[in-house]
Amino acid sequence: MASFLITGTSRGLGLALAKRLASLPTSQVGTIFATARQDNSPLNELISHSSGRVEFVNLDVTSTSSVQEASQIVDKKLQGKGLDYLINNAGALDWNNDGVVGMDNLNDMFNLNVTGVHEVTRAFLPLLRRGEKKAVINISTTLGSISRAPIYEQSLTPAYKITKAALNMLSVQYAQQFASEGFTFLLVSPGWLQTDLGGSRADLPVETGAEKVIDIALKTSPAQNGKFLNIHVPGWENASGNNQYEGGEIEW
Known about the structure:
There is one protein chain. With about 250 residues, the chain is α/β, with parallel strands linked by helices. The protein has one domain (about 1-230): 3-Layer(aba) Sandwich (Rossmann fold). It contains six helices and nine strands; from the N terminus they run βαβαβαβαβαβββαβ. It has helices at about 10-25, 40-50, 65-80, 105-130, 160-180, 205-220, and strands at about 1-5, 30-35, 55-60, 85-90, 135-140, 185-190, 195, 205, 230. Helix 4 links the parallel strand 4 and strand 5. The chain starts with a strand and ends in a 22-residue tail after the last strand.
């Protein structure tokens, strides 16, 4: 039974990831630590129907003290056991009609999308070292690929693109440093999802993105350490438009 910790589970992809894990058999998935700045009705409903498998832990990724307190709480709940999976999902998306020159929130976006991931990852490293899987899944996006920047030129989300590109490099740095300890640091793009952030015009239901991300996580191994992967959705391998979901590696 693997243990999981997910950031940003109060809504969207984070909540869908927790729901997907809770739907899997206990032989495969044990405790799921669902973290967020505050709980809410959808998350509490999931917890109440999880037979104790889903546990809420207060965690604000932009607060060092909150991150440290959460790691101590999880450590006590694990009772000496390790944490198998960390899924860094919490993040924010900007829209700016003025493009890059209109950015006035870049520091805030970095704090949430990059620094927050760093703070959470290093705080939970001692618990991950005790885990069997030692897997860190960082939720990224094809919009953070410099190679694919011309494809998404008309998407006016400059701070999101910049910070996700930085997240990709942060993940590679962790992958390189901890490869010798058997860690797997993996970047996954979950696709353009129908959430509050992605909007109703997005390609995929959030449940589909969550299912495919978890599929990748459960199958990952140290051989994939440092990779940037796309989800695979049958029928979307050669779709027209900007987005295809063929399950391969994403160019940087």
